[in-house]
């Protein structure tokens, strides 16, 4: 019995690295950060592989604020980007956006400033808002959550459109299709087709 326990405890450590990396792709990123990487040095090394966190960023987040130049980063060699830190930042934005949205739902106090605080994250907050818009029907505050998540997303879209138009007034290099696509942001709501995707549809 003792031999069996030792064997079952250590066998994972002797698997080929390629197999462990494949397994980690299917593990919860929070479990990897909080638990798996503390098991042993080998797992710690594999759990910090940039390719793993690049995969998690690509899998979990569709929308990124323009400041990240994310499409360029996906084309760079994987080691050129601190993907784990980028993933942690997005998780922090997700948590903070959810907290602010919960506060907007619960109280009327300082709602405008909370809208503005979420908008400060730019498109990094969009995935979170879309998730709350698609909340399960059985959620206790489903109607209020969907309404305010949609409302904040609309505000975020309008802010984005105005910022782009301001760049055109400042003689910044803004593609014509992007400037025209901003009109759609005022009626987009939670549908696809915002300015970050205009180029793909033309």
UniProtKB/TrEMBL annotation:
All copies of domain F-box, residue ranges: 9-56
Gene3D superfamilies: 1.20.1280.50
SUPFAM superfamilies reported in the protein's UniProt record: F-box domain
Alphabetical list of InterPro entries matching this protein: F-box-like_dom_sf (IPR036047), F-box_dom (IPR001810)
Pfam family, one: F-box-like
Protein's recorded name: Putative f-box domain-containing protein
């Amino acid at each position: 019995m003792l031999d069996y326990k030792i064997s079952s405890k250590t066998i994972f450590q002797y698997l080929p690295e390629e197999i462990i990396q494949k397994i980690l792709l299917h593990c919860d990123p929070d479990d990897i950060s909080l638990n798996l990487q503390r098991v042993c040095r080998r797992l710690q090394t594999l759990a910090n592989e940039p390719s793993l966190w690049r995969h998690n960023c690509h899998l979990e987040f569709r929308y990124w604020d323009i400041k990240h130049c994310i499409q360029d980063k996906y084309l760079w060699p994987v080691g050129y980007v601190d993907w784990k830190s980028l993933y942690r930042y997005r998780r922090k934005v997700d948590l903070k956006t959810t907290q602010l949205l919960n506060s907007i739902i619960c109280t009327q106090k300082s709602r405008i400033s909370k809208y503005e605080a979420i908008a400060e994250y730019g498109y990094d907050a969009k995935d979170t808002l879309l998730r709350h818009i698609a909340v399960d029907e059985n959620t206790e505050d489903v109607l209020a959550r969907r309404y305010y998540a949609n409302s904040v997303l609309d505000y975020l879209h309008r802010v984005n459109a105005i910022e782009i138009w301001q760049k055109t007034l400042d003689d910044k290099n803004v593609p014509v299709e992007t400037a025209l696509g901003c009109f759609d942001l005022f009626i987009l709501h939670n549908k696809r087709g915002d300015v970050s995707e205009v180029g793909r549809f033309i």
